[in-house]
Amino acid sequence: MKPFVFINVAVTADGKMDTFERKGAAISSARDKARVDRLRAESDAVMVGGRTLLDEDPKLTVKSEALRAERVARGLSQNPLKVGIVTEADIRSDSEFLSSGAAHIVIFTTDQTSKAQIESLRSRGVEVFVHESPRVDLEKALHTLYELGVERLMVEGGGTLNFELLRLSLVDELSMYVAPMIFGGESAPTAAAGAGVARGAAILLKLVHSEVHEDGGVVLKYQVERST
Ligand SMILES: NC(=O)c1ccc[n+]([C@@H]2O[C@H](COP(=O)([O-])OP(=O)(O)OC[C@H]3O[C@@H](n4cnc5c(N)ncnc54)[C@H](OP(=O)(O)O)[C@@H]3O)[C@@H](O)[C@H]2O)c1
Q: In angstroms, what is the C-alpha Rg of the chain?
């Protein structure tokens, strides 16, 4: 068993989720940020990949006080569970990911993370699962999250994690905000990276919702069909 898994991503019109500088370029509009905040508030857990976690250090908290209060009124914690998928969990102890907001934190990692780092994470209440594989076993991680009570999981990138989850048929839905701008750049990350698939194995999507914002941004929601 696994949670309902949806990816949310913000891309430019040329499909980039950041510039070649990889500094977490702003893509979402204010209206889109409010949409993303609601998606977070409606989720049991929010997941990011290792590069996003270590390089961007996202807070992954619900920004709106009203949405946090709504969660509490429903008997939930203020913020959803934060989940990191990271091969070597060399996470700074003063990171925003670990420190910001009241939230339970779960890290899935491998034995490339030092015992000292694992102990340090556990001593501050982080739940750490160590997989004996070169990278985190995503199927196993989703099963563990389901057992921890996560029924609705929001994945917030990056492209490498997105692609692996899609390739393994672990994603139910994909939401994207397409901003009216272009970054270009061969090395600029796209919404789904990894090794890619040949045309015959394309992961097919069914558009279930679309919305055009006044600033020209577009929100697209797809159901993920199986590969061809
Ligand atoms: N616009 C947006 O919505 C958005 C959202 C999030 C991120 N971003 C951008 O995306 C970029 C980062 O994306 P990214 O593709 O480089 O990295 P990523 O997807 O954030 O992280 C991928 C890393 O996670 C680790 N990992 C461990 N087990 C894994 C598994 N089973 N499958 C996949 N990864 C696994 C790997 O580390 P090792 O390689 O060390 O094994 C892998 O390189 C940044 O520029 C960030 O700003 C944009």
A: 17
